[in-house]
UniProtKB/TrEMBL annotation:
Molecular function terms from GO: GTPase activity; microtubule binding
Domain Dynamin stalk: 26-121
GO cellular component: cytoplasm; membrane; microtubule
InterPro entries named among the record's database cross-references: Dynamin, Dynamin_stalk
Identification of the protein by name: Dynamin stalk domain-containing protein
Organism expressing this protein natively: Aegilops tauschii subsp. strangulata (Goatgrass)
């Protein structure tokens, strides 16, 4: 289901049921149940793939060791195939039951579940974070967005000390100068 369809469906539910905040759980559960039910076909297909792979593995094991005994090989192949086929149907039933159980109860009261006011709060935080420009500070404490001064400029700044004088006026002093210092 696309995001547009979900938004349209939630909007229709809001019009039918009233205030969105009060009845948001119902449409959410319907959407989640639909998504969970979509897991059934791929899960059953996965069980079929596993069955086919186990059959291939049994054939590979039987081929090398039992070449000298063709009747025994055929018998073992039939027994192993029957064993795997007999286990496939219960496995598929269990998969279907697990998916039905997951769809029957949607635990919206779980502490890890983000819904209602928590979801709105988290969305607002993400919007605020996107609006603020991120400044990266390097380990040496220098702002990464600011252009770095050349080596000569840094040496000159080290030699020339700046002090605040009277009325906030910045005066330059040369380090080691007997007149100023």
């Amino acid at each position: 289901m696309s995001l547009m369809k979900i938004s349209a469906w939630l909007y229709r539910m809001q019009l039918v049921l009233g205030v969105l905040c009060l009845y948001l759980r119902v449409p959410f559960e319907v959407l989640v149940r639909r998504q969970i039910s979509r897991l059934l076909d791929p899960s059953l297909q996965c069980a079929d793939f596993i069955y086919e792979e186990l059959v291939k593995m049994s054939h590979r094991c039987l081929c090398n060791e039992l070449q000298q005994f063709p009747i025994l090989r055929r018998s073992m192949d039939e027994v192993i195939g029957k064993f795997l086929r007999d286990g496939l149907k219960p496995a598929q039933d269990m998969i279907a039951h697990i998916i039905e159980m997951e769809a029957d109860y949607i635990n919206t009261s779980h502490p890890s579940f983000i819904g209602g006011s928590k979801a709105v709060e988290q969305a607002q935080q993400q919007v605020r974070a996107a609006r603020l420009p991120a400044t990266v500070v390097r380990r040496d404490g220098v702002d990464a967005d600011r252009p770095q001064a050349s080596e000569k400029t840094q040496k000159a700044r080290a030699l020339l000390g700046r002090t605040t004088g009277v009325n906030g006026v910045i005066t330059d002093q040369i380090q080691g100068c007997p007149i100023c210092c």
